[in-house]
Amino acid sequence: MLPLRPVYANLTPNESVLNLISNEMKEIRDGTKSNKISQPLVLDIEDFKGDFSFDALFGNLVNELLPSFQEEDADSLEANGNINGNDALPNGRSGQGQGQGQGQGQGQLTPLFPEVDALLSMFKNSCSQLVEIRKQVDGKLFNLKKDVSAQDSKHRKTLGELEKGVDGLFDSFARLDSRISSVGQTAAKIGDHLQSADSQRETASQTMELIKYLMEFNSSPGDLMELSPLFSDDSRVAEAASIAQKLRSFAEEDIGRQGVTMQSVPGNATASRGLEVAVGNLQEYCNELENRLLSRFDTASQKRELSTMAECAKILSQFNRGTSAMQHYVGLRPMFDVEVMNADTRLVLGDQDSLPSPSNVARALSSLYKEIIDTVRKEAATITAVFPSPNDVMSILVQRVMEDRVPKLLEKLLVKPSLVHPPPMGEGGLLLYLRMLAVGYEKTQELAKDLRSVGCGDLDIEGLTESLFIDHKDMYIEYEQASLRQLYKSKMEELLSESQLSGESTGSIGRSKGASISSSHQQISVTVVTDMEISGHAGSGSGSGSGAGEGVPGGSVQPEVVSR
């Protein structure tokens, strides 16, 4: 048996067998092998492993190898001058001497492939071997099928046993899960009972402690020296405040219930004293603790220790919702100092000897109110970082601004003149007061809008602003009418003065007398047009003469003076 050469190890079965046959044919053609094949080509079943096709093998032999051999033989014969391209015959033989001239006989036919018979013998031998190989392959396939069938049956049997085992395992897991669930539910119930019992135990323990503390406060009036160390330890102030508030609430409720019981049972003179002493002592202790916390809060505020301030504010929020701490903080702000308010008056009114101008007052008010807004905005940042309820503190702060700082300034700015003896026109008259009122009203409304944008909690700042001017608005119509009368009188005096000056400038007695008579008979017609308009808005009126009432909140009376 001739095995395949190693060079064909990586080729497909068709290519390996084809190359083997090709080499055999070349050896026969080249004469390296005897004409009679002593050792026929032996094929082995190993040569046909993989994808093998007989059709492809013989097709390649016919279509590739044989034409190449024909071309090689034709080239060799043509080189020797023995045959031309037309000598090849389909039967594998060629004619020599055809067409070489007259007188020559027909050339003898020689086979194109001298070893055709040997190759045919080799092919027949190969076919018989292939048939034998096919039988071997069929036998092996049959044996493999039997083995596969046996293994498949064994495998199915094993799978069936495994499925039964898995089903049993699942049943066991289901029973185990059911038991675990039952145990879990029981454990949860036990846990709930234990938690409830622990909560009740904790409540009972706290109640016992509260009762002990309550008895300490109810021992004797005004005696706070025998209290537990908890109420004097500065590191446990928050806990002490919480307990004191609980005791105070409980004692007050007990007194209320006791009062109802005594009223429902007349003649019960032997009722117990109750917890009046405890309520009094608790009130005294809470006041002392609150003052102590406020003192610590002030110290931290001076040092700008926001964390300490926030801690104190949180504890103080348990006392009346922290109102005392909020009011205390707002009351200590430098913006409400007396010196600051006096500086406000000097900034707006200027020197006392000079007459204030509405335009200068408007500019000064704008500058002052802007400073107030900036201060409130800075305080808002601190309040937000310190207090648990910053909106409530901002409401108190803005209310203090609108009820303390602004009213004191407006009180000095808007001094009501007397209607019986109004100030002379040389000092501005009633018109100056009306213009100051218009400027103050307008700028204060702008301040209220800015404070609303910064934040003022639930404070009705618009209503608070209107309340600052309610006294002035109630008397506004009377003041404007009086101002118009004063303006009218001033204009009349001015006209009479001009008339007298024009009469004296004639230069003659007769003419002076005639002018005097003419002047005495001069008719003066005055038409006063009254237009009362009550308005809640203000303008910055700066007119003079007939425009006395422009831009002032309230009504306006416009006189028209015509001289003929």
From TrEMBL:
Transmembrane segments: none annotated. Residues 77-110, 499-522, 534-564 are annotated as: Disordered. Keywords: Coiled coil, Exocytosis, Transport. Signal peptide: none annotated. Pfam families: Sec10_HB, Sec10_N. Residues 117-233 form the Exocyst complex component Sec10 N-terminal domain. Residues 94-106, 538-554 have a biased composition (Gly residues). One of its GO terms (cellular component) is exocyst. GO terms for biological process: exocytosis; Golgi to plasma membrane transport. Residues 239-522 form the Exocyst complex component Sec10-like alpha-helical bundle domain. Belongs to the SEC10 family. PANTHER family: EXOCYST COMPLEX COMPONENT 5, SEC10. This is Exocyst complex component Sec10. It comes from Lactuca saligna (Willowleaf lettuce).
